[in-house]
Design goal:
This protein has 371 residues and is an alpha+beta fold. The chain has helices spanning 7-14, 20-30, 38-46, 52-59, 102-108, 110-122, 161-175, 206-216, 219-222, 235-249, 259-266, 275-283, 295-303, 317-320; strands spanning 67-68, 71-80, 83-90, 93-100, 134-137, 140-145, 188-191, 194-197. Helix content is 35%, strand content 12%. The chain has a six-stranded antiparallel sheet. A two-stranded antiparallel ribbon has the order 7-8. The longest helix is centred in the middle third of the chain and has 15 residues, at 161-175. It is elongated, with a radius of gyration of 24 Å.
Amino acid sequence: MSNVTSPLLRVIQENQLLEQQQIQELTQTAEGSQSDPMPLAKLIESRGWLTRFQINQILSGRSQTLTLGVFKLLNPGEETWTGRLFEASLDGVPTRLKILDSDLVEKLTTSEALKQLESLRQLSEPRLHPLGEAHHSEGKVVLQVTRANGDPLPTGDEDRKLLKDLVRLYDGLHKAKFPLCIAHPDDFRWNEGRIVFVHAESLCFSEQAREHLTRLGELERLAFFPPEDRFVESSMIYNLAAIYYFILNGAAPFEASSPLMLLEKQKQSIKATDVVGEALAKALSFDPTQRFQTLQAFLTAIEGNPSNADLYIPPTKSEFEEEPIVLEPAEPFVAELVEESPGAEPRPTRTAPVEVEPQERPRRKPKEKKS
């Protein structure tokens, strides 16, 4: 171990944030500047050896937060309702992590969360974006994640292709005992003619989601939730209908400024002007017993022709065993560095999930009423 006199370098060395050769090179530069670490910090950043986030954490006395088990945290990413994303490295290899929200994990228990995440990782569902390995480190559940390519859900669905593909996804997850009841349109990508659900880890926290999202004030996401506190069989049909309503209209079926107001609006019925509207109105019934009880019944009603038997072809076992989507490597994620004072807390970011490329979703203009 080299004779390091700079307090900044000493902390970097103790936390093994740089190679020993880099430490030795910086030791010569640091001589005579122990009283002011900023010149050395700027030099380290300019060489790309540490990120500004890492340097700010060190200067703020929070160097211990830069290591999480076998991972080194490089830059914070966006925050989703299930946790915070980070650009990280594992043995020098870049990777992405999601540190799951501790409150959310505790509601389910850590062991159960790890068990369900592993079950999802092993699930052979081609419309589910692959999950990475989950780790339990320093009291946190850490999930390796990858970026999902594709476009936002298109608006309009004249040939019902989107709906049929959504149903295959919902049906496959339901059979795997992960019924999809909490999806939001931003959770889906349209990739190579197929729907892909990109936030698979959220399926582990379906029962805990409402309380958690209410605490976070995530009304936009809650607008797609069924109103009942405990999900039943028809809850996924409500969620599917809300997603499909968005595809057709560019907005959630019910919107409000508070959870209580949202619940009151969900007690109302949407206006129906055709068979599709009537089917959606029934699927979005406040009373779970008044909804369609099967995906087949919902699709048949959407089509408006009960005799159309080929509208929904139940997925076969072989179909759900098809090869997962092969996603092309995404561009390396680089978090935006914000100029911060040495003692400042890192600025939190709450924007769209980092795994997907943010794109503006066009809102469909409402149809003009015929006179």
